[in-house]
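REQUEST ID: PR-0412
SUBMITTED BY: lab tech R.K.
PRIORITY: routine
TASK: structure prediction, single protein chain
INPUT:
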Amino acid sequence: MSAYKLLIDTNVFIGLEDPKKVDPAYADIVRKCGEHAIDMFVHECALLDIARDRDRARREISLSKLRKFQELKGPKLPDKATLESLFGPIRKPNDEVDVALLYALSLNVVDLLITEDQGIHERVKLTPLGSRVLTAADALVWLRRTFDPTPVSFPLIADCKAHEIDISDRMFESLREGYPLFDSWWAKCIAEHRRCWAVTVGDQLAGLIVRKDETPAEADVTLPGRKILKICTFKVRPEFRGEKLGELLLKQALWYAQRNDYDLIYLTCYAGQVTLIRLLEYYGFMRTCSRADGEMVFEKPLSRARLATGAAETDLFTLDRTNYPRFVVDAPANVYCVPIRGDYHRKLFPELAFAAPLPLFPDERPLLSLSARGDRTPGNTIRKVYICRAKTKALKPGDALLFYHSKTPGLAASQTVTSIGVVERVSQTSDLEELVRLTAKRSVFSEAELRGIVDASPTPVRVIDFLLVGHIDLAIPLSALAADGVFNGGPPQSICALSPDRFAPIRERLALGFAV
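STATUS: complete
OUTPUT:
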């Protein structure tokens, strides 16, 4: 028996079982209840409705189909006067069925009632019970919100199941060498429909995470947590190392875990996996124990509370980094708005590079991919770089950055605030070679482009290293930014500070899986 029990009214049952095209919402409800082991019941009073059908053949067919659902034996009903005081007048047999369903709901025999009968909705619309009487559309929204994970997607990454992965791929050879029972374990992953994040470049599997939800009783961890995400496999193909695919996969895992209310994320690795260990520790994973065979456990607790500085905190950026993706926006941190050109925005944040919808196809927004191999790295990273000639010298590590996508025809994000990051360090130079060194791991520009930037003006180039901590789900358009007082007049032409009251309208819109 599952934690939730749904009662389906006859009208929904008929919608599912009539010999006609099934309403997609009804079909989705049945499918999702099956996926999440949610019990669906038909009240015994539904038999009375069906028994009133004068078409004998149809009646017999409906009764035979009813057996696929669990039957709910109704509780003993109070007298008519009591029922009418609770649920309104009872004038005909259909009313008796309606109040019987509502009475079972009121006793918490079931959690929710799904019905298209507007009369039932009317009976409870002004009562607390009204929030538990749902239409099919309401029920589908509830199922999606309650049980479907919040999607987090990046270019190159596919969310798939283990059986969709080609286990004969050469990437698995080293896994077999290090773990002789790998094929048996993978067969278990297939049988359990384990979910994966797979990075595919061209026709090659370039990186993979296999994940598993665990309970505290299952997880081999030392830190507390009710909802736990285990990273069972974390692998990047050797040919693609240097393209920051490991950072891309970790970003996927951390954003997903944060937005879906996990309390703890963990994985195991060996001392020889130096690059992975360095990456994990940088973003706040802690080595909590080592096993007899040398395998080490790395755990990272997650919280949905607002991150605040303690009295002893002196390094704001370290606080942000180790609690990633949470970050501080209150003092001593300041918030700045950073205008960014469309071409640069597209390279830094390729997951947001949607084309503006065409008039004849308003619901279609294709993602504009980056074809050149070298263009992928900046989009894969958490640690990014922004270069400009802004005059401000106030930026410091730990300050928050809001990126405003400047007007760019053809891109859906044009003239909106799209993304948020935190400053890691700020440098400046007028020397090309130093600029190349400062931006070597993160830059979206070639040496020739950097030379053009240096030669364009004697003013020093400012280099801002930052961590991308999130995107704003509903990008905030210029009209709203102006109306809410975020911008004074037109959009900023250079980096500008936002006071707490100017930042407040954006702060209210942030939905990153934690309080900001």
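NOTES: The chain is about 35% helix and 25% strand.
REVIEWED BY: pending
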